[in-house]
Amino acid sequence: MAEERLIDDDIEKDKKYSFRINEDGEEELVIVQEEPAPVPALEEQPQGEDERFDAVEEERVVGDILARAREEMVNNRYSTALEFLSQAKEILPRDGEIAALELYAYTRGFTEYSQGALPDAAAAARDVAAYCTPEQKKNLGERGAEELKGMISSLQREVEELDRRNEEGKAARAVRFDADNKKSLIFFFPAVALFIASLAAAIYFAVGIEGDRTDTFVIYTLVFTAVTLALFVVCLVAGRALSITARRVRMNKDNSCTQLGREYVAANTRLNHLRTIYDAVTK
pTM of the prediction? Predict the structure, then answer.
């Protein structure tokens, strides 16, 4: 306890402590008496100095990372380059140079627009549009704009043809699907109405059995109960048929439900990504 009080007293006196091994091989506490360091006056600390230092340090670190990313791209190691660029982007997320290098890396120097990398390339292009200088955009455009323009023109015609064929197929199927769905509706709602009416009659006669001395209500109750059960089965069949025909109508409107529709969606998505990249380096 005396030792703890001594340590507490020393703390109050702004003493510094460290541990060392003495000659006997035992750990001991060493108390170092230090004069408090003078605190510079506020006017001696230029305002914003820390911020400027941090900005300079960030630029230095990012510069080193970008140099390594460029070296990887020179050696056609674009995946590794993108890893470096990701690190740089964490430090400077709104930097135009990083965005430009990302776009260059994702497209492998504007030579490859693979389906897997294209969404990321389009995202990088949006950063290019937002953060790059006109000079940076011009440099990127000189590398890939002409080829992109030709690809977009060719793909545009393909998308238009796929869209035309897809819509024609939808229209042809819609005639049959809509007619089948209409028949199902015509069958379903009358069946439901008859079921409700029969059920109401069965309940009515069942409730009046106690006051009936001729057993007429009993007979009617049994008859309408049997009819109600039969109509219930009919409603189930009609409901299933309506569900199938209605689902076909919905599916016919969904491009993802046919091979041709999926081809159209994929081609149109690719076209939009290419346009995003082209616009970013030309506007």
Answer: 0.71
